[in-house]
Design goal:
The protein is an alpha/beta fold.
Length: about 625
């Protein structure tokens, strides 16, 4: 699939097939809004009648020698009904899967729930024939690789990809407007395709440490549900009981030169990632990685994690220093005591993802996420936390559950929406009085607060209300401006903005820490406002567009958004609480979750899905 501007590159790819089977398809509207979706319809719509599989290449790739023969062998060896990709990018979560596969000696691995790497994608022929109809119904301006992910998810099709990659991303500028994502190449590319492309061992790893957008994080798979949690690598290491050893190694004199060259932010994240990789390898009982392979995949760790922040020249200059630091960290992690790891998390000691605090209410995803974060904070208070709804749903059951559990404290998580209808300005907790607000939505939240207080007086249990700003990050409510705008940005629709609007947002990690601060102190204050940050509407929309897709906006002639905000000085003065979560990271996590996670991961327990966890997990 090619743009007319790249016909020379496309013909070169086609002519490399010794059997002449490759057809060049071009954008039917090359002067239209940049998108790969138009060409994708043509490319997936030309499956040969006698084909068993259909391969689509993008025009900005470089092929390994023997690539087409490699594709034939892979198609013959892979289990029926699977999709096969021949690329894993260094900037992606799946690029981290490729790194881990290489370190365990696996030639294939199953992808995470992320956009499918479509640079070179092979589908069974019947599946390829079905794609066009799906895109026509569900494309809606979404990025091409996300549409493919959603299509394969709906069909329950697993995606495997090879390591090393047998195609490389060329350094050509993006025609789809993605150049601001930076210099992008494969995690590991070899110039000659392997002669053995057998199905072999194709693991689905239970824990995948990755370095992305300058942050060290881990994808952690729930063994019971097959769902994925994405959390800070430091939190995962704490769960496994290996964080102290990791930080001790980072502080050793041998890391000094690298820390000085890279700076603390980069060096620390690289060390955490390398160390976590070592812990995973040790927990899986994997043999010592081949040093040449390990060096090759660690060479791309820095470029993948920092490609949006630095030029290609800067990334390549930093790569050797980052490689050596990551290798040293991996060696330290392999020596860590990982004997208690089970499904990626130590079953006893070293912290637990199961909190003693009862969490009720909210949708399942946000509640589970908050409960896990509270557990990572080590809370042992006999308390109940309820996520309000504003319409009374589930409140009576939550109060009964708190009493049954013997809770000694009750924290009700209300909403800033209780201030709706207020005049512009900054509002302290006493701005809502004893009388019900006139605004219908505000009155619903006020009524829930009142019911909680009355229950507490009757039950003799202290009740505290946290009025929280709009959550941002995974599992954020669909009603929030952040989710609405991310949806518009991903699908390239203009945003309608109020130039004087004001928005407050709250990261779930800050929320968990605020709950910790409340429960660690006597229940002196009945109501506290909690927020991570405050932004003007134009500023917030710009930040969200930067982490999803840049999109135009239009100005509204009438007020659309609040002109007021909550004052958060009381919780800061009384409890010494301050927001610490990086808000930009939360916005990026929201954008990734909305595009790649909530549209449905396939059921890994369904017939035809790969067994999990496979060896090496």
């Amino acid at each position: 699939m090619a743009h007319p501007k790249r016909m020379e590159e496309a013909r070169r790819l086609a002519e490399a097939d010794p059997q002449g089977r490759i057809l060049v398809t071009t954008d039917p509207d090359p002067d239209g809004r940049p998108t790969a979706l138009r060409t994708a319809l043509v490319s997936w719509g030309c499956v040969a009648p006698d084909a068993t599989h259909h391969l689509v290449l993008q025009d900005d790739v470089v092929l390994a020698e023997g690539f087409y023969e490699h594709v034939e062998r892979a198609a013959a060896a892979a289990p029926a009904g699977e999709a096969i990709s021949f690329y894993g990018g260094w900037e992606a979560r799946n690029g981290a899967v490729a790194r881990l596969a290489a370190l365990t000696g696996a030639g294939w691995a199953y992808t995470l729930q992320e956009h499918v790497p479509c640079q070179a994608l092979l589908l069974p022929a019947e599946l390829a024939r079905e794609y066009g109809e799906f895109q026509e119904r569900h494309g809606g301006g979404w990025p091409y690789d996300v549409v493919v992910q959603r299509f394969l998810n709906e069909r329950g099709v697993p995606v495997r990809f090879c390591t090393p990659s047998t195609v490389q991303h060329d350094a050509l500028p993006s025609l789809a407007g993605n150049s601001y994502h930076g210099f992008r190449q494969a995690t590991w590319f070899e110039g000659t395709a392997p002669e053995d492309a057998g199905a072999g061992d194709c693991p689905r790893f239970a824990v995948v440490p990755f370095y992305q957008y300058g942050d060290a994080r881990c994808a952690v798979r729930d063994a019971d549900t097959g769902s994925w949690e994405y959390l800070e690598t430091e939190r995962w290491l704490r769960r496994t009981g290996t964080l102290d050893g990791c930080l001790a190694g980072y502080g050793a004199p041998g890391t000094g030169p690298a820390r000085q060259q890279l700076g603390e932010r980069v060096a620390r994240a690289v060390w955490l990632t390398g160390y976590a990789l070592g812990v995973v390898l040790a927990g899986a009982g994997a043999p010592e990685p081949d040093r040449r392979t390990a060096a090759a995949v660690m060479e791309t760790l820095g470029p993948g994690g920092l490609c949006e922040e630095h030029t290609a020249e800067e990334l390549l200059a930093m790569a050797p220093v980052i490689r050596d630091l990551a290798l040293a960290a991996m060696d330290e992690g392999r020596r860590a005591d990982a004997s208690g790891l089970a499904g990626g998390t130590r079953s006893a000691g070293g912290g637990s993802s199961v909190p003693s605090v009862l969490v009720t209410g909210g949708d399942g995803g946000f509640g589970r996420q908050l409960a896990g974060t509270l557990g990572d904070l080590g809370l042992r208070a006999r308390a109940a936390v309820h996520l309000g709804s504003g319409d009374g749903a589930g409140l009576a059951a939550a109060l009964d559950a708190a009493r049954t559990a013997g809770a000694e404290r009750f924290v009700y998580l209300g909403s800033a929406a209780v201030y709706r209808g207020s005049a512009p300005g900054e509002l302290a907790e006493e701005a809502v009085g004893p009388d019900a607000p006139q605004d219908d939505v505000a009155r619903g939240w006020w009524e829930e607060e009142r019911r909680c207080r009355e229950w507490g007086e009757t039950a003799g249990i202290p009740v505290q209300v946290l009025r929280i700003a709009d959550p941002v990050g995974p599992h954020a409510p669909a009603s929030t401006a952040c989710v609405r705008w991310v949806d518009l940005a991903w699908t390239r629709r203009p945003l309608l903005l109020d130039p004087q609007g004001v928005h407050q947002i709250l990261d779930h990690r800050d929320l968990a820490d605020a709950i910790r601060a409340v429960l660690a102190a006597p229940p002196a204050r009945p109501v506290l406002n909690v927020a991570s940050a405050r932004h003007g509407e134009v500023e917030l929309a710009g930040l969200l567009a930067d982490v999803s897709r840049r999109t135009p906006w239009e100005w509204s002639q009438v007020p659309l958004s609040p002109r007021w905000s909550m004052a958060t000085g009381l919780i800061e003065r009384e409890l010494g609480w301050r927001p610490t979560a990086p808000v930009m990271e939360a916005m990026r996590a929201l954008a990734q979750w909305y595009a790649c996670d909530i549209h449905g991961d396939y059921d890994e327990t369904a017939p035809g899905s790969p067994a999990a966890p496979a060896s090496g997990s």
